[in-house]
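Structure (tokenized):
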């Protein structure tokens, strides 16, 4: 054998681990619902004032939506508040 591990290290079974739960980390990303392209300047102004970055996606039906980059809790809450005031749907990821 090569190395300093005994044969039992390679041949013994690993004890079964139970009840392991993966913790999903919060990303602080917002994906908006679709909106008219005429609303884009208003959305860009809100994102700029909050110093946030987002990707805008233009759908084939002419509607637009955005997905933000990960951000702080403060920025996330401010954008959520703005979207709530507009009455727009969004999803936090």
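Design, position by position:
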């Amino acid at each position: 054998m090569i190395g300093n591990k005994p044969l039992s290290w390679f041949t013994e079974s690993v004890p079964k681990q139970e009840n392991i739960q993966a913790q999903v980390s919060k990303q602080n990303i917002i994906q908006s619902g679709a909106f008219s392209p005429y609303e884009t300047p208003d959305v860009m102004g809100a994102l700029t004032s909050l110093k946030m970055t987002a990707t805008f996606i233009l759908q084939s039906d002419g509607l637009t939506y955005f997905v933000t980059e990960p951000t702080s809790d403060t920025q996330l809450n401010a954008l959520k508040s703005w979207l709530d005031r507009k009455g727009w749907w969004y999803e936090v990821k």
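Reviewer-requested clarification: Residues 27-92 form a domain with the Alpha-Beta Plaits fold (CATH 3.30.70.2030). The first strand starts at residue 30 and ends at 32.
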